[in-house]
Amino acid sequence: MVFFCKYMHKLVTLAGVSLLLPLTSQAVDLMPVIPKAKGQQCVESTDKMRRNHMEYILHQRNDTLRKGIRTPKYSLKKCIECHNAPDKDNRVAHISSKQDHFCSSCHTYVAVKIDCFECHADKPKKTQYHPTSREGH
Ligand code: HEC
Ligand code: HEC
Ligand code: HEC
Q1: Radius of gyration of the CA atoms of the chain, in A
Q2: Closest ligand 3 atom to the C-alpha of 34?
Q3: What is the CB < 6 Å shell around ligand 1?
Q4: Nearest protein CA to atom 20 of ligand 2, as residue
Q5: Which of 106, 113, 115, 118 maximizes ligand 1 atoms within 8 Å of its Cβ, making it the mutation to test the pocket?
Q6: What are phi and psi of 119, to 5 degrees?
Q7: What letters, b where the CB count within 10 A reaches 16 and e where it falls short, cover 67-88?
Q8: Of 26, 80, 94, 106, whose Cβ has the fewest other Cβ atoms within 10 Å?
Q9: Residue 79 scores a pLDDT above 70
Q10: Which of 12-16, 77-81, 83-87 is least confident?
Q11: pTM of the entire structure?
Q12: Residue 116: which of 102, 103, 97 has the closest Cα?
């Protein structure tokens, strides 16, 4: 909950700023554009996922590594399969792409840094990175 409050604070601040801007389209441009997922629905409601996704995957990591429990429902691999699905040329975004990678699009906006993809794949198997997303790597 504390996490979400911080996030809400940023959104509320933005909403306040937008009232001062003469052009609402400028304010809209400040909001993150979150790449659309593959599939009909998430593993929980979108609202719940926005607020609690970190708890689902962090807890599972602890359970998986310490107790050997596996809950395929909150698999990080599955998140990536839906949320960084390949385009028609079988290309996907690199985690360093602040706009194109699902996780980064939002985290850049709220200034969150995660280390998950130092070990975990940021793309589904057998896909290539989009060339423009590889800059600096
Ligand atoms: C809709 C926006 C949004 C998207 C999309 C998103 N996140 Fe997050 N994430 C957040 C917010 C907000 C926080 C907590 C921010 C805070 O507490 O300051 C967070 C925090 C986290 C944390 C905890 C970080 C920490 O150090 O406490 C993890 C882990 C995480 N996200 C993983 C992911 C992964 C993996 C993806 C992609 C599959 C993803 N998130 C996509 C908004 C998002
Ligand atoms: C130092 C390497 C490392 C880092 C960093 C790391 N993990 Fe993992 N993670 C593993 C290993 C090893 C496993 C067990 C093997 C497997 O199932 O892939 C695992 C398993 C998992 C699983 C269960 C398997 C799956 O695909 O669902 C989840 C969920 C998960 N990690 C989430 C996270 C999240 C979220 C972060 C970032 C906050 C993170 N991990 C950071 C090494 C790491
Ligand atoms: C079967 C496909 C699928 C899987 C698996 C999946 N998602 Fe989703 N997710 C969706 C869809 C569909 C939405 C609704 C928004 C959209 O259409 O892009 C969504 C929404 C979200 C949102 C809110 C995004 C927003 O627009 O505010 C977050 C955060 C999220 N998912 C994180 C995750 C995480 C973390 C995992 C892995 C534990 C995961 N999802 C697994 C399909 C999936």
Answers
A1: 17
A2: 26
A3: 3, 6-7, 34, 50, 53-54, 57-58, 79, 83, 102-103, 106-107, 110, 112, 114, 116
A4: 61
A5: 106
A6: -110, -40
A7: eeeeeeebebeebbbbbbbbee
A8: 26
A9: yes
A10: 12-16
A11: 0.86
A12: 103
* DSSP character string of the chain: -HHHHHHHHHHHHHHHHHHH-S-HHHHHHHS--PPPPSSS--SS-HHHHHHHHHHHHHHHHHIIIII----GGG-HHHHHHHHT---TTSEE--TT-TTTSHHHHHHHHHT----GGGTS-SS-TT-EE-GGGGTT-
- Name the residue ranges covered by the structural domains of the chain: 32-41+72-134
Structure tokens at 42: 């998430």
Contact residues for 57 (Cβ-Cβ < 8 A; gap 6+): 74, 76, 79, 116
Unique residue bearing structure tokens 């990591």: 61
